[in-house]
Amino acid sequence: EAGVAQSPRYKIIEKRQSVAFWCNPISGHATLYWYQQILGQGPKLLIQFQNNGVVDDSQLPKDRFSAERLKGVDSTLKIQPAKLEDSAVYLCASSFDSPLHFGNGTRLTVT
Amino acid sequence: RKEVEQDPGPFNVPEGATVAFNCTYSNSASQSFFWYRQDCRKEPKLLMSVYSSGNEDGRFTAQLNRASQYISLLIRDSKLSDSATYLCVVSLYNQGGKLIFGQGTELSVKP
């Protein structure tokens, strides 16, 4: 089966700029997650979708981060404006029950 | 206190050594438990689930102690290819199965 697809793989932006990441989950996976992984740390959940509804966004910095999954399939994560501390790998994952299947991630560098 | 805490690394061991990773979790609502493996600059991948009775997969043995809220992973006869970061993961049944990751323990197996 095709895995979780993410793009872009790498992104370098200056602070205060905007950036968007895209994720296409595994076909049939109703649950989609965005994680942020800072170097040397484990992944931290930003937002969890069940189909196109939000299940958990308690750790999403909503003043600058937004995410949507309009048709219950693809999802986008946006940061506006970016800060230096947003430099991290943004991982998308999907699941049908357990376990999680991760995409390759987008490595964001904010300068 | 972190919800999921792992041994700080890195662990540097020779080929053929036995190495054990420990993980503790603080939330008694934790329902399911996993070990993920993450290679450098790659996404996390499921290594094995952890069952109450303990389970083994080849050279890998996982143990769970619910009373002590403790999980372990034992790797026997370690190989160079085992070098990676090992992430302890717990799922919270009262938060829609939300997965919480530990910070990871890095293993380096040397010839």
List the keywords.
heterodimer; A: mainly beta; seven-stranded mixed beta sheet; B: 111 residues; mainly beta; six-stranded mixed beta sheet; five-stranded antiparallel beta sheet; 11 strands; 57% strand
DSSP helix count of chain A? 0
The shape of chain B is globular
Fraction of residues of chain A in helices?
Answer: under 10%
Query: Taking all residues together, what is the mean pLDDT of chain A?
Result: 94
SSE order of chain A, as H and E? EEEEEEEEEEE
Number of helices of chain B: 0
- Which runs of chain B of at least 5 residues are low in confidence (pLDDT < 50)? none
List the chains of the largest interface with their residue counts. A-B, 20 and 21 residues
Helix content of chain B: under 10%
Secondary structure class of chain B reads mainly beta
Strand residue content of chain B = over 45%
Counted beta strands of chain B = 11
Task: Estimate what percentage of residues of chain A fall within beta strands.
Answer: over 45%
SS class of chain A: mainly beta
Low-confidence stretches of chain A: none
What is the fold's blueprint, element by element?
The complex is a heterodimer of chains A (111) and B (111).
Chain A: E1 5-7, E2 10-13, E3 19-24, E4 31-37, E5 44-50, E6 53-56, E7 65-68, E8 75-79, E9 88-95, E10 101-102, E11 106-110
Parallel strand pairs in A: 2-11
Antiparallel strand pairs in A: 1-3, 3-8, 4-5, 4-9, 5-6, 7-8, 9-10, 9-11
Chain B: E1 4-6, E2 11-14, E3 19-25, E4 30-38, E5 45-50, E6 55-57, E7 60-65, E8 70-75, E9 84-92, E10 98-101, E11 105-110
Parallel strand pairs in B: 2-11
Antiparallel strand pairs in B: 1-3, 3-8, 4-5, 4-9, 6-7, 7-8, 9-10, 9-11
